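Ticket #4471: structure output looks truncated?

Reporter: J.K.
Steps to reproduce: submitted the chain below (523 residues) through the standard prediction queue, then opened the result file.
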Amino acid sequence: MVVVGAGVGGLVSALLLACRGLDVTLLERAATPGGKMRQVQAGEAFVDAGPTVFTMRWVFEQIFAAAGTSLADRLVLHPLDVLARHAWSGSEARLDLFADARRSAEAIGDFAGAAEARRFLDFCAQARRVYDTLEGPHIRSQRPTLMSMAGDLGPRGLGVLASLGPFATLWQRLSHHFQDPRLRQLFGRYATYCGSSPFAAPATLMLVAQVEMDGVWAVEGGMHAVARTLASLAAERGAVLRYGAHCDEILVRQGRACGVRLSDGEVVEADSVVFNGDAAALGAGLLGPESVDAAPRVTPRQRSLSAMTWAVHGRTQGFPLVRHNVFFCQDYAAEFRDIFGRRRLPRQGTVYVCAQDRDDSGALPQSGQAERLLCLVNAPAEGDADAIDPFGPKEIQSCEQTHFALMQGCGLSIERTPQNTCLTTPAGFHRLFPGTGGALYGPAAHSWMDTFRRPASASRLPGLYLAGGSVHPGPGVPMAAMSGQLAVATLMADLDSTSPSRRVRISGGMSTRSPTTGSTPSA
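Returned output as attached by the reporter:
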């Protein structure tokens, strides 16, 4: 078996295939594993410059158990009580959200009044019902069809989804729950976790609230440690990991994927291939003509968000940072009109800051020392619109000045120099992840039907399976890991049967919550 790409989905695929006793070769063109779960050097420090949040711990507990070990034996995780600290441009008001929904309700009551606190608890109860409804039929299952989804949900599940309102967007549902526009803005961010606009994304994305309240952890050694650990474990179980191996073409014989050709001309033959790059690269012909129709093509207008990111190793002053911090602009709708409508960098956007050396207390290990920060502003996935960069130096500089000024207006000052800062633009992400234009989440989720358009683990080309954040069940570290599980389950089901691919489902889940998860209000 050949796995192309050492992102989380590819690492999980290689690990689980090796644990099944199969010969597995994992090919990665970079020098290290991780894919988007990468580190970059900023000054004297290495900073996590991709995903920064570890959630859905049960997914990884299940994967490590399948490999004959345990998550706790391989990684050190620290639970975070403070999910994020939020601030607004032009205001001194701040709001912390907690893993404990009751503490969040108290904080919201102090911030926006008792009525909004009650509405928040109602919102949490509905988010939990939506999550529990979709976890098995959607999240843990091979990509559903409209008919299979209706059958899996049954009358009760269909009733839960119907309660959101026919075809309701997340923003419309938030407007039903909250009167304070700042709270709609805060919870609207859940759409951006999937690279989408809250004004177009389906209301079902409110389930992200339940995912966070089930627990958020900080990983000792950073998120890149997750990728390194999965890679080491895969090698221990017999997988061959080859870095600096650039796959140029997926080979096909008699209508079936049979291996890959590398950029140096080497051919690696295989009975089956798991592709963990962005599925858009297939439709763009970047893996050869034989696989161009293996997955639905993604047009530039269908792409999810990209980003402008600044990895910084510098001193900070003023604002009391915790690990996860969000600084909101005043006109939230304008951010998404710029990105998805005008396809330009936002004139005023939201800034996310991960302070990677801080915990719930907000204290640095050594007061006054430089710290590792990742600052992120959403951007359009237009990284392939020009050979160099579709956004010129002046536009990039203007975006940088505007958003660091926004943080300054909220009280945060960051010491930055060209030497201690590493900037990545949409064009940079496109070079890292070809075929995407810099999109970081695959296709955007801008209608309820997009659920059924995202590629499944079984591609249209026999013998070629898909994993990663661009395919079902979606973007994010745990979802990408689950895509690896689904790719392996589908592949193994095909090996065990002469019939076409059958729907598979990952066992386990969080419908019955364990003592390791955060507390949530009862429905």
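Triage note (M.O.): checked the attachment and the full token line is present. The first helix runs from residue 8 to 19.
Status: closed, working as intended.
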